[in-house]
Amino acid sequence: MTEGKVDGKAGKKSFSLKTFLLNVRDELKRVSWPSKDELVSYTGVVFVAVIVVCTLIWVCDTVFGRIMAFLLS
Q: Could you give the CA distance from residue 60 to residue 32 in angstroms, rounded to a whole number?
């Protein structure tokens, strides 16, 4: 890995966009990307989790709304 240049101000490194983008590309090469089957499976899990959480929020909202309507009437 390359390191940024050190300027004269208390040893701070200067920012180089080119170096940053090269380091990003190097890191992305090391990523363990999921296979198509894994990606489809993970997407299904996320979709089901979203549906469950949305349903839970809807039920809680309905129950609390009815409780408040009963208390305020």
A: 39
CA–CA separation, 66 and 56 (whole Å): 16
Task: Write the pLDDT tens digit of every residue in 1-16.
Answer: 555 565 556 667 788 9
Rg (CA), the chain: 26
Dihedral-angle region of residue 2 (phi above 0 means left; psi in -120 to 50 means alpha; beta otherwise): beta
pTM of the model: 0.59
Under 8 Å between Cβ of 7 and 14: yes
Tokens of 35: 């296979």
| Distance, CA of 37 to CA of 21 (rounded, Å) | 30
